[in-house]
Amino acid sequence: MSFRDESEDLKKPLLHTGSWYRMGSRQSSIMGPSAQIVRDGSISVVLCVLVVALGPIQFGFTCGYSSPTQAEIIEDLDLSLSEFSLFGSLVNVGAMVGAIASGHIAESFGRKGSLVIAGIPNIIGWLAIAFARDSFILYVGRLLEGFGVGIISYTVPIYIAEISPQNMRGSLGSVNQLSVTIGAMLAYLLGLFVNWRVLAVLGKKAIRSP
Fold first, then answer.
1. What percent of the chain has pLDDT over 90?
2. For 20, which DSSP code?
3. Does 20 have pLDDT greater than 60?
4. Whether the Cβ atoms of residue 144 and residue 114 lie closer than 8 Å to each other
């Protein structure tokens, strides 16, 4: 095999069906100009990955949110330490449900469609937390947040792997975990300067549909 053939092989994506580039994975396979540009153009792939990386940033932000806001939420809503601990842990319950449902959602709506759907409970959840006046609304918002990040945690790594050429797959795949840690760091840093309601609004604004 010549060097040119090896170079061309490195540029091929993991999957060749093109199903990653459409909203519905059950639609007919597309291999038109738009899919070809994203598959062969490294710049386009990197841009796609950077946009999708907003999902893991949201994941990390959600996980880190409860740490800097503990004292303020307990004081403002008159919660006990046990009640706040329940608030912090409910994200895991929601994430389990989201992870279970994510496979079916991705199959029905495609990778991009799944990420759009994940944004809906995330936005509603952050708004519920930001305007919560009692523990019940706070818990509902946290569950919705968990459901959204559960979908994100499944969909984003697969999406990145499917659109990445073989010679870039390792480096682009690491963007997912890097984005999670960046999101957690942002929650910790911003929590030093703003109160918990404003921090929830900032979490909502961090969500963008890919």
1. 62
2. G
3. no
4. no
Both structure tokens of 193:
């300067």
Q: Answer with the residue of higher pLDDT: 64 or 30.
A: 64
- d(Cα 204, Cα 75) in Å, to the nearest integer? 23
pTM here is: 0.76
CA atoms within 13 Å, Cβ hemisphere of 61? 28
Q: What is the mean pLDDT of residues 14-25?
A: 42
Task: Rank 2-6, 38-42, 106-110 by mean pLDDT and report only the highest.
Answer: 106-110
Please check the confidence at residue 22 and state whether its pLDDT lies above 50.
no
Rounded Cα distance, 91 and 129, in Å: 12
Please report the pLDDT score of residue 167 as a whole number: 81
C-beta of residue 187 within 8 angstroms of C-beta of residue 64: yes
3-state secondary structure of 1: coil
Residue 165's DSSP bridge partners are 13
88, 144 in Cβ contact below 8 A? no
For residue 101, which amino acid is it? A
Alpha-carbon distance of 204 to 210, in angstroms, equals: 15
Nearest Cα to Cα of residue 124 among 88, 102, 148, 154 = 148
Helix runs in 11-134, H state only: 33-40, 42-52, 54-77, 81-130
Q: Provide φ and ψ at 164, rounded to 5°.
A: -85, 135
